[in-house]
Amino acid sequence: MFIRKAALPALALAAALAGAGGLAAFTAPKADAQATTAPAQGQARPEHHFDPGRHIEGRIAFLKAELKITDAQASAFARVAEAMRENVKEMAQLHEQFRADRDKPKTAVQRLETRVKLGELHTQHEHRFLAAFKPLYDSLSDEQKKIADELLAGHHHHHRG
Q: ∠ CA(79), CA(83), CA(89), 5° rounding?
């Protein structure tokens, strides 16, 4: 998979909006590097947990810098940042709940219910972000709007096989 450099800001923003772990998939060490740092046979591996909010402050700072937020736009941007923080907080709580139940056998119906619950949460997050972002977007200059449009265009158009 090849990703154009111009796609990286869109990928970072998409991850920020989704409350995901950022660009970890694109910056993870290569398999050989992992092999040299893997624990010796018989040693316990440290448990790594997915943390939706791990880099939220960095994602917020990235968005603020990329959009070149002015002092006059700071209060509107603060509402966007708070929406992002709330979204990842809720996602982390749900993920923690899922982790606590991970060893319990689940039926097909329970798995589908979980998927629906996750989908509903994502929809709620999109609504929260939109409600905060729209007033900020309305206050942006034409140049800032162009940047926002590029950042929010999504990354799926930038992948090459």
A: 140
